[in-house]
């Protein structure tokens, strides 16, 4: 690993998607203001058997057992009370119409449940939780020109898989369960790469016949070389784009497909300028009470978890070669009364610099006790095979609740 679990914990403390629900709105002059958010909490038991950590915990599956305080891996089952994949959030919006343009501003702030100390490690008595303003952006446009978005928001690449993962309101794969941080992993690192939060300027064309397209630039991110050093950002912005199609056949039959692409140059210490690049496709079909979703991605200059390489390096320091990754997610769910039952299988692998394969299966039940409160139970099992080193296995059972308002 080119980064120790402590560094990764700090990164992942700010690393998942939002579930904004502006249920309350009110007028303030010409402005419509909105306020919403969520609070969620899970009790999670993670199985960490040293005999199942053949790669000594140095993989995605092994990260479930990371003990950040001790600087190693947990031995035996760990118990935690913390957030799931989503942090708690408070989401504020303001929108109006002026001179023929629709305007809006959005500020979404996220809160960790478990305490952390000043170094981002699991906290002790009287420590505080984390606070993160990860979405701060404006939009303007109209039916003729489309919409411009400018500010900090989630990227386009990898967004649809994570936002449609049933574990978005649950846990999925756990992370550092012996001392939980801001979030769990869901399917990150297994079936899709984290979309990241990027400073960006996008234009979305007017939607026509169910087709919508977005293109934009974003502030470039650094990669990681195999010597552990960060790359330069390449001296130019990154670009990303997305096209999607929604179809409603009536009688409970709906479908959506989308495709995205991302590209950004980096600068290595040896002078090479390779790229972080990737594409993904996503599809979802709803047939009355049944829902089916699937996604596939491939990329270069990233590992299975994040752009540029988070756990393993994205680029070779000697040859300039970029890591190559691919993965997929398959999910099916069925709703009985107020309860949704689902299963999700995810798999990913790196094939160039660090050969590793990850897979995860999650089964879950999500019961809507009320329109705003969902009771959740999930069980997950994950395996990572690191070529030439060994195999890590871990698993977890989580029960909790999500309140959206």
TrEMBL record:
Location of the Porin domain: 12-381
Residues annotated as signal peptide: 1-23
InterPro entries linked to this entry: Gram_neg_porin_domain (IPR033900), Porin_dom_sf (IPR023614)
Gene3D superfamilies assigned: Porin
One Pfam family this sequence matches: Porin_4
Transmembrane segment boundaries: none
Keyword terms of this UniProt record: Signal
Keyword Signal assigned: yes
SUPFAM superfamilies: Porins
Name listed for the protein in its UniProt record: Porin
Organism the protein comes from: Thiothrix winogradskyi
